[in-house]
Task: structure prediction
Amino acid sequence: MNFFSLTWFLPETIGSFLWESFWYLYLIPAVPLVFLLKWLLHVRNQQKLRISLPEKYIRFSLVSLFRFVPSGMLGIAMIFMLVALARPQRSNERIEFLSEGIDIMLVLDISKSMLEKDFLPNRLEAAKQVARNFIKGRQNDRIGLVIFSGEAYSLMPLTTDYQLLTQTIDQINSSLIGSEGTAIGSALAVTVNRMKTSESKTKIAVLISDGDNTVGNLDPATAAELAFMYKIKVYTIAMVKVQNFVSDSLAVTSDENTLRKIASVCEGQFFRANDASG
Result:
């Protein structure tokens, strides 16, 4: 803002400052009143000459205006003094609010066992809802997506495009990966591979699964140690309800111990989803 700009006197400009003693500003209108009172007293006490001069001898001179300069300068000085006494405070520095630089990888199990219906309509759809709710709660963090069943694939790189990420999650189904089984170790390995070069101060993986590891060349515990080595905290969410439930089509399977151990090794935390909202 230009120092000599009249925008300094706009209400929004004044309101943008913090004033330690705002009440001094209320005295500013009194400054011209002081000079008006001084002028009135001067006129009252002035000895008027009774000499009448012809109008042609009365000429206006710009020089005569200079007699108001001292009073004007004094008035301006008084106004600035009152502003100074009000103690305005404002930072001209541009403040940028930066995220903490958290990188998060969602690791979603889409294996056949996730079609169990202890959640409605099934575990997979409930897990997708958990993922969507998680994304809604984030701001400025980069989030990626890994899916797995018998194999693991990186479906979305780390991104802040939450809308695209959510749309991708909406389209996930159990037929995206042809190989059957649940390879949790492979999923963690893919996650580590995607996050190991990240320069983020905090790296997190959220593993959403029923915990039933059945295939894969890499043991989940070993993969967890690998994640820990790259400073990736792994939080696990078990998509299993603790209840006496027997599926008509598939055997109800789960292994919470695997998920608990992964969370423990990676200094994360284990959770159990209680409903479709997580």
